[in-house]
Amino acid sequence: MEHATELMRVAKQVVALGKGIIAADESTATCQKRFDAVGVPCIEDNRRAYREVIVTAPHLEDYVSGIIFYDETIRQSTASGEPFSEVLAEKGMLPGIKVDLGAKELALHPGEKVTEGLDGLRDRLAEYVALGAKFAKWRAVIEIGKDIPSMACIRANAHAMARYAALCQEAGIVPIVEPEVLIEGDHTIERCREATASTLKSTFDELAGQDVLLEGMILKASMVIAGKKAAKQSTPKEVAEYTVRCLKESVPAALAGVVFLSGGQGDEQATENLDEMNRIGKTPWPLTFSYSRAIQNPVLKLWAQNPSANVIKAQETLLFRAKMCSLASQGKYSAEMEKQRPY
Ligand code: 13P
């Protein structure tokens, strides 16, 4: 494969010891929801100003290997005119780009979704390479409910992810493949394990079918956990044991690394669960973070209170959460440390 050496190098850099990813790739619709919740108008200049807070946070590179951008964001610059991707590159962080076009209704399968975005993807990837992107992300959504997920939904998403991953590697961009099993619902952890295991197996079958280089890609996984509305919530120990076992059974050892989404878990909960997994240890791949909400929630809240005055406070909060996640990715976090929260 033409770009194999570079793909393997970048994939390793993404999951380097003590490092993880910040997902700042909310689509405009998702950003609208997040901004509405804190009372900030979701206009382009506010989105740009908020992303600048993240991108320019001092010392973020100590804990963060890369930031995932949305199409609008990768084209934006700081107030002083420096493109965000150049700011990252100067600090030794990697710019990433979300390239899927969202989850749409899956034909003949009410309540299930398939992620779109393959048409024209080769050309879009070429443009993102020119804009500095080193890795990409594609998110598939698997929902647990009555009689779902169906194999039709799992297979359609797995196939699309494999074709996306192949196009990325052809373009010299490391694909992050994200089959998210949603936390919404009242299902048990056991049902989440079943859905996650079939999703992962199908995904890696399809990736093999498209000859995707596993050493040059990253899995973005959801944790195996009981549904948010389940009567019995999962403890960090349960989440860690179920998730690590499920990954070991379904994910080939050759993969460069696994990063997790937070999926609506609280920031401390997502940190603690990651920490527990890394305390179990002995996985063939690094296990680290690629959180959006579990890192950004307290940052956005603080910034929104006073966008012109609270930039430094918001950045200190961002650095603190990133540091906690970094420690968790090494099994060195403890809930006690939360007492040192700056605000
Ligand atoms: P959350 O951590 O908020 O789940 O977001 C991660 C992500 O990138 C979802 O695609």
Task: Describe the protein's topology.
Elements: H1 4-14, E1 20-24, H2 28-38, H3 44-55, E2 64-69, H4 71-74, H5 84-90, E3 94-98, E4 103-105, E5 113-115, H6 121-130, E6 135-142, H7 151-171, E7 174-181, H8 189-209, E8 218-221, H9 236-250, E9 257-260, H10 267-280, E10 287-291, H11 293-305, H12 311-328
Helix pairs in contact: 6-7, 7-8, 8-9, 9-10, 10-11, 10-12, 11-12
The structure holds 1,3-dihydroxyacetonephosphate (13P).
Walk me through the structure.
- This protein has helices at 4-14, 28-38, 44-55, 71-74, 84-90, 121-130, 151-171, 189-209, 236-250, 267-280, 293-305, 311-328, and strands spanning 20-24, 64-69, 94-98, 103-105, 113-115, 135-142, 174-181, 218-221, 257-260, 287-291.
- The protein has 12 helices and 10 strands.
- The strands form 2 sheets. The chain has an 8-stranded parallel β-barrel with strand order 1-2-3-6-7-8-9-10, surrounded by 8 helices. A two-stranded antiparallel sheet has the order 4-5.
- It is of the alpha/beta class and 343 residues long.
- The chain has one domain: TIM Barrel (Alpha-Beta Barrel).
- The structure holds 1,3-dihydroxyacetonephosphate.
- 1,3-dihydroxyacetonephosphate (13P) is lined by residues 23, 139, 178, 261-263, 291-294.
